[in-house]
Design brief:
By secondary structure, the chain is mainly α. 74% of the residues lie in helices and 0% in strands. Helix 4 packs antiparallel against helix 5 (87-94), helix 4 packs antiparallel against helix 8 and helix 5 packs parallel to helix 8.
């Protein structure tokens, strides 16, 4: 049965809502950052091929594995940064990825840099400055904000590389995005496992949280996203997915009482506004398409 556009939009929103639970869930698990990163990805590596047929195809393409390396880095950096800084800072800083695409794509994809983009970069820099300057002092849920912020910025860069890699694959006629996502989780699991070992016994809650992160926060979220993208243009999906960085700090505040501070929230709002505005302007200059927008780690 053909699904309505409203149902497709709700599926994209459901994906964003599931992605947004990452911050609160990662902080709810007593395992350290590398242990959470490895086990979360190990579970997701099993869930994605089971839930999504396309994730089982395309593993033999070299391009798939190049994208998978960048995505694996994003997965590990996001989890470890969330363990060290506030969930708000981690997700806001990772959400700078489209701005890194703006900077890097002229060199890596031979895309044209427009003079007007300097204004977007300046506004984003102001938002980043406010976010970083307003970082809350160390706390129980954010024991090392400075290091966490740096890791989250690195996650933004690696996610930008992932998005550009997917764009390159699509231009080459390869649609291996889901295979790259599954392969990236395999790489993240294996690459970090030596530093995550030995795995503690943990509590039932710890393992339930890890199961949620792998099966629902990644696996089911990608299922909803893939279904929704079949009917929702890429720009609209990208804007709907901005629900994730809005909800992520909210869930963490409700679950853990984590307060990132007014300046961090204001800076993050500026960054998200810049990303949305630039996406709208870019869409005005090119025909609307249906395809995979940047999604979460």
């Amino acid at each position: 049965m053909d699904r309505s556009p409203v149902a497709a939009r709700l599926e994209v929103l459901a994906a964003a809502a599931l992605f947004s639970t990452g911050g609160a869930a990662i902080k709810a698990c007593a395992f350290d950052g590398l242990q959470v990163a490895s086990l979360r990805s190990g579970i997701a590596a099993l869930a994605l091929p089971l839930l999504l047929g396309p994730a089982r195809r395309g593993w033999g393409r070299p391009g798939t594995w190049l994208v998978a390396v960048a995505y694996a880095a994003t997965l590990v950096l996001f989890v470890t940064s969330t363990k060290l800084t506030t969930a708000a800072n981690a997700i806001f800083l990772q959400s700078t990825a489209p701005l890194w695409v703006l900077v890097l794509s002229p060199w890596l994809l031979a895309e044209r840099f427009r003079v007007r983009d300097l204004g977007f970069l300046a506004a984003a820099a102001a938002g980043l400055a406010a976010l970083l300057a307003g970082t809350a002092p160390p706390s129980a849920t954010a024991p090392d904000p400075a290091t966490g912020n740096l890791l989250a910025l690195a996650a933004g860069v690696s996610w930008a590389l992932t998005v550009m890699g997917l764009r390159h694959l699509e231009r080459a006629g390869e649609r291996g995005g889901l295979a790259a996502a599954a392969a990236g989780n395999v790489l993240a699991f294996l690459a970090v496992l030596p530093w995550a070992w030995p795995i503690p016994a943990g509590s039932t809650t710890d393992w339930l949280v890890l199961g949620w992160l792998g099966v629902f926060q990644i696996g089911l979220a990608y299922l909803f996203l893939t279904r929704g993208l079949a009917r929702v243009p890429a720009l609209e999906a990208s804007l709907l997915l901005l629900v994730e960085p809005v909800l992520n700090p909210l869930w963490t505040w409700l679950a853990h009482g984590e307060n990132p501070g007014g300046w961090s929230l204001a800076g993050g709002a500026v960054v998200l506004a810049v990303v949305a505005a630039r996406g709208l302007l870019e869409a005005r200059d090119r025909p609307a398409t249906t395809g995979p927008p940047g999604t979460s780690a």
